[in-house]
Amino acid sequence: MKKKLSIILVLVLALGIFTACEKEEKLALGENQDQEVGQSIEEENQEKILPLTSGQEIPYEKITVLMGGNLEPVDLSEDQVEKILESLLGLEFSNSKEVLDTANDSDTIIIKFSDKAYVEMKEAKPYFEDNLYHYNYFKDGDLVDVLVSKDHLREDIRNIVENKDQ
Fold this sequence. Notes:
Elements lengths: L1 H43 L3 E4 L5 E4 L3 E4 L4 E2 L4 H11 L3 E2 L15 E4 L4 E5 L11 E7 L2 E8 L3 H10 L4
Antiparallel strand pairs: 1-2, 3-4, 3-6, 5-9, 6-7, 7-8, 8-9
Helix pairs in contact: 2-3
């Protein structure tokens, strides 16, 4: 009887240890899966850098283009986003805060780099005598700088957006 009781006790202990180990494994697997999901979301929202040809950089998370009178977001293909980023490489910081304070119209384009940073493209022709196009750059709702380009980027971007087959 003592042998049977000790065998039963050993089996119960062994079963308890086995069950505890199994639960621990499941918990560890669940944590790994949660970490992997968290990593993929983090990578998706990871800040990237737009390296301007001037050597300056603009950080961005995701490029969103707003166009039209109501500044509606435009659906973009990956190819279009790449072309837009490529066209923005020629921008330079002017170290000026002389904002181009003109009203948004149906030709205005806003390029959002994140929820807090964007560029307003309103200018149809060079505004100042420098023959450069000026674009307001905002971060956290404040004008940070005026970006300049010798190219008419607003129209370049409009062409990229409107010609989905490019």
